[in-house]
From TrEMBL, chain A:
<dbReference type="GO" id="GO:0140647">
    <property type="term" value="P:P450-containing electron transport chain"/>
</dbReference>
<dbReference type="GO" id="GO:0051537">
    <property type="term" value="F:2 iron, 2 sulfur cluster binding"/>
</dbReference>
<dbReference type="GO" id="GO:0009055">
    <property type="term" value="F:electron transfer activity"/>
</dbReference>
<dbReference type="InterPro" id="IPR012675">
    <property type="entry name" value="Beta-grasp_dom_sf"/>
</dbReference>
<keyword id="KW-0411">Iron-sulfur</keyword>
<comment type="similarity">
    <text>Belongs to the adrenodoxin/putidaredoxin family.</text>
</comment>
<dbReference type="GO" id="GO:0046872">
    <property type="term" value="F:metal ion binding"/>
</dbReference>
<keyword id="KW-0479">Metal-binding</keyword>
<keyword id="KW-0001">2Fe-2S</keyword>
TrEMBL record, chain B:
<keyword id="KW-0479">Metal-binding</keyword>
<keyword id="KW-0520">NAD</keyword>
<dbReference type="InterPro" id="IPR015881">
    <property type="entry name" value="ARHD_Rieske_2Fe_2S"/>
</dbReference>
<dbReference type="InterPro" id="IPR015879">
    <property type="entry name" value="Ring_hydroxy_dOase_asu_C_dom"/>
</dbReference>
<keyword id="KW-0408">Iron</keyword>
<keyword id="KW-0411">Iron-sulfur</keyword>
<dbReference type="Pfam" id="PF00355">
    <property type="entry name" value="Rieske"/>
</dbReference>
<dbReference type="Pfam" id="PF00848">
    <property type="entry name" value="Ring_hydroxyl_A"/>
</dbReference>
<keyword id="KW-0001">2Fe-2S</keyword>
Length: 106, 452
């Protein structure tokens, strides 16, 4: 089971043991990572699972779909590396990968 | 009796016609409904303060009549929309907060800060039928003046600047945009929204309603004038310095002019906590030390005001540069901003009132939501964090002495107007022009023309 590392906005690092095939959003929620909300359960309508992927993490996951890219456009806090964590499926390749949590969600 | 005298006796001097305000404007459900239909959607209204929306994504909602408006700070400035999802009509946003998008909690339809629909769940089910349908949020015009966010639901018509007419000429020198909330009260009252607002639209009531105040507030006689839709009143006739007693009273209550001035600032600070500030009161007290007991009233008042100004500058707050004594005098004391706001501005503080029908029952002429905001100039970053105090029963909870006195009149007026004998109000043509002008303008919006 791969370990994911979430860096909460206050700088707290949370290490989460995730199940392969789950989504990064659900793994974060189960572990109680502050700042990953996931109101819509992962159907890409709430945008409250927003996180930033450092380049090193981004290389380990497939790129976002066109729908996700379009939705990311609207995020006030969007920057390079922005992703919806509900669209990232956990694989062994993500072991040790880092995800940064934004200042606020919505 | 000579013939001329007889003529005089039977032909008294031509008097002005009486201004009447029909009780229907306050009591009739039809009139309230007509206001909801023809007034609120056509005028510019205060939706909030500019400083409430600091970061992109910050939003607030403003409800009036049957409408709800959401105002947000978008990437390129303020945006405003009707707060309703075009799918099944659920309200989108509630209260205030921060969001990158508006997402309907019912079926998840989403809209970005530009108001554009960004998501319809299972859109293919419509099989193209939505393609030509407007799915974006309905825009509302938004602008700012005096540090307030103004909205207008009518997408055409006057700009805010046109709507305000000449008023900014009088009020801009106060720099209300530099002020921040000192305190906020929201009252839920069993009276018409206009009854609440009108308690603050004339100075004619001061002698009877606030008898303690006229011992030190100078001459309380007011004059009032219309300026288009808006109007003001001020103390321009036989002006007497603050700290002296009203000419309605025999003698001067405080023979030592300094004591009168300090007592005036004390009353305003303790019994109103608005317009003039704690800083002004503290500064005014210094005149006891620096002026002789036999100083004249004008010098006592002038020195106290100057000390207040100096205290504001020392505090890092600064003084509005364009606010000369001439500008202060020209503005007067109180402005009605059509339809539902009133302000009393001073150099380092202001009172601002906003009234509207109760949002849970907008057609009920006997209920309203009445807000009182005390604003103050603070040194940068020194403003307090202010929570709104909500008062549902003002007989049980006090705001402050002066406002309690005003509020005590309200339910008595609303009830009294229902008397079978009372068909119309008889406003004072000199001192209550704000009311006369208000109803004339209101009737033009609501009925198409004024009754008189
Ligand atoms: S969980 Fe709602 S968009 Fe990702
Ligand atoms: Fe009053």
């Amino acid at each position: 089971m791969p370990d994911l590392i979430f860096v909460e906005n206050e700088g707290v690092e949370v290490r989460v043991r995730a199940r392969v095939g789950d989504t990064v959003m659900r793994a974060a929620r189960v572990a109680g990572v502050t700042g990953i909300v996931g109101d819509c359960g992962g159907c890409m309508s709430c945008l409250t699972c927003h996180c930033y992927l450092p380049e090193e993490t981004a290389q380990r996951v497939p790129p976002p779909t066109g729908d996700e890219v379009a939705l990311l456009e609207d995020l006030a806090l969007r920057k390079a590396g922005s992703r919806l964590s509900c669209q990232i499926v956990v694989t062994e390749a993500l072991d040790g990968a880092t995800f940064l949590v934004p200042a606020w969600q919505g | 009796m000579r013939i001329e005298e007889m003529m005089m006796a039977t032909n008294p001097k031509q008097s002005l016609p009486l201004n009447k305000i029909s009780t229907e404007n306050y009591l009739s459900r039809e009139f309230a409904r007509a206001e909801n239909e023809h007034l609120w959607g056509k005028v510019w209204l205060v939706a909030g303060r500019v400083e409430e929306l600091k970061e992109v994504g910050d939003f607030l909602t403003f409800n009036v009549a049957n409408e709800s408006i959401v105002v947000a700070l978008g990437k390129d400035g303020l945006v405003a929309y009707h707060n309703v999802c075009p799918h099944r009509g659920r309200r989108l946003a509630e209260g205030c907060g921060r969001a990158s998008q508006f997402r309907c909690r019912y079926h998840g339809w989403s809209f970005n800060l530009d108001g554009k629909n960004t998501q319809v769940l299972d859109r293919q089910d419509w099989d193209g039928a939505l393609d030509d349908e407007r799915l974006d949020l309905w825009p509302v015009r938004v602008d700012t003046w005096a540090g307030f966010i103004w909205i207008c639901m009518d997408t055409e018509g006057e700009s805010l600047a046109e709507y305000l007419e000449t008023m900014p000429e009088y009020l801009d020198p106060f720099e209300l945009e530099e002020m921040r909330f000192r305190w906020k009260v929201e009252l839920h009252l069993g009276v018409n929204w206009k009854v609440a607002l009108e308690a603050f639209m004339e100075g004619y009531h001061v002698a009877a309603t606030h008898p303690q105040l006229i011992t030190v507030s100078g001459n309380d006689y007011t004059q009032s004038y219309a300026h288009g839709k808006h109007a003001h009143f001020g103390y321009w006739k036989d002006v007497q310095p603050l700290g002296t007693s009203s000419p309605r009273l025999a003698g001067n209550v405080y023979p030592d002019a300094r004591e009168g001035v300090v007592e005036f600032f004390r009353q305003i600070e303790e019994d109103l906590n608005a317009i003039q500030t704690d800083r002004d009161f503290a500064a005014a007290k210094k005149i006891m030390d620096i002026l002789p007991p036999d100083v004249d009233a004008m010098t006592a008042m002038g020195t106290a005001i100057e000390l207040g100004r100096q205290a504001a500058i020392d505090d890092g707050t600064n003084y509005p540069e364009g606010l000369t004594y001439e500008a202060l005098g020209k503005a007067g004391s109180d402005w009605h901003i059509f339809p539902n706001c009133v302000t009393l501005p001073y150099f380092d503080g202001a009172l601002w009132y906003r009234a509207r029908p109760d949002k849970s029952e907008p057609d009920n002429p006997d209920k309203c939501l009445f807000e009182i905001w005390s604003l103050k100039r603070y040194a940068p970053g020194k403003e307090p964090k202010v929570e709104t105090r909500v008062i549902t029963d003002p007989t049980k909870e006090s705001v402050c002495l002066i406002l309690d006195q005003d509020i005590a009149n309200l339910t008595e007026v609303q009830a009294g107007m229902k008397s079978s004998k009372f068909a119309y109000a008889r406003p004072n043509p000199v001192q209550e022009m704000e009311l006369i002008n208000f109803h004339k303008t209101l009737e033009r919006y609501v009925l198409g023309q004024s009754r008189n």
